Amino acid sequence: MEFDLSAILATLATIITAWFAYNQTRHDKLTDIKVKEYEKKLERISYKRTENQARILGEMYRLLIGFNCDRVYILQPHPLNINEYISIMLEVDTLGTSHVKKSWYMTKMAEVPKLASTLAQNDLLYLNIDDFEDEDRSKSIFINNGTKYIIAKKLIDSTHDWVGSIICDYVDNCPQEISDEVKQILVRTAILIQYILPKIELNENLEVM
Questions:
Q1: Which CATH class is domain 47-193?
Q2: Residues 6 or more apart whose Cβ sits within 8 Å of residue 198
Q3: pLDDT digits (tens, 9 = 90+) for 61-75
Q4: How far apart are CA 129 and CA 74, in angstroms?
Q5: Three-state SS string across the chain, please?
């Protein structure tokens, strides 16, 4: 019996090509499924992040109105566990008051060591900006934005690590002390937002997202 080697090779080539085509199609479908699942996951994360930000901004606005301050923002160390920088992602202010978000953008922790240490180590603070050390850059940032006093409430994560501080910023109408009522409101606000506070992330250009 004679075998047509060329025919056999052609048949094998057809089978192998079909098998690779099948596997490639199967692989592509699985890839498409994984991509769609990942996209849905990102959508859920984005929606949840937006929802959490809205809730946090709502609580911050309550403080702005309730405490009659000029700005309320959250100073956040980042990246977490390294804490190389401190920035503001969320801020609300009264009409006509300048934003401070840009002033704090990617501020190196090493440039504001006293403030960073004070915020990280203390649960609740009332600070007069005039009392800040001149060499700490935070003093010039506050002064340049007209800040005279701040009330700061520490925010922690589930392991009790510092993840940020709510800052109630006063340009005028500065309180002389923190009342018990103010303390209770700040504690309540911190409990409501500290576990849903989005961490500050950087894009490929090292810009805060």
A1: alpha beta
A2: 49, 52, 53, 89
A3: 999 999 999 999 999
A4: 17
A5: CCCCHHHHHHHHHHHHHHHHHHHHHHHHHHHHHHHHHHHHHHHHHHHHHHHHHHHHHHHHHHHHHHCCCCEEEEEEEECCCCCCEEEEEEEEECCCCCCCCCCCCCEEHHHCHHHHHHHHHCCEEEEEHHHCCCCCHHHHHHHHCCCCEEEEEEEECCCCCEEEEEEEEECCCCCCCCCHHHHHHHHHHHHHHCCCCCCCCECCCCCEC
pTM of the model: 0.76
147 burial level (CB within 10 Å; 0-12, 13-18, 19+): buried
Each residue of 115-144: pLDDT tens digit? Answer: 999 999 999 999 999 988 877 899 999 999
Q: 């390294």: which residue's tokens?
A: 82
Q: Are 70 and 171 in contact (CB under 8 A)?
A: yes
Buried b (16+ CB within 10 A) or exposed e, 96-123: ebeebbeebeebebebbeebbebbbeee
Query: Which tokens belong to 17?
Result: 């090509």
The number of residues in the chain equals 209
Terminus-to-terminus CA distance in the chain, angstroms? 74
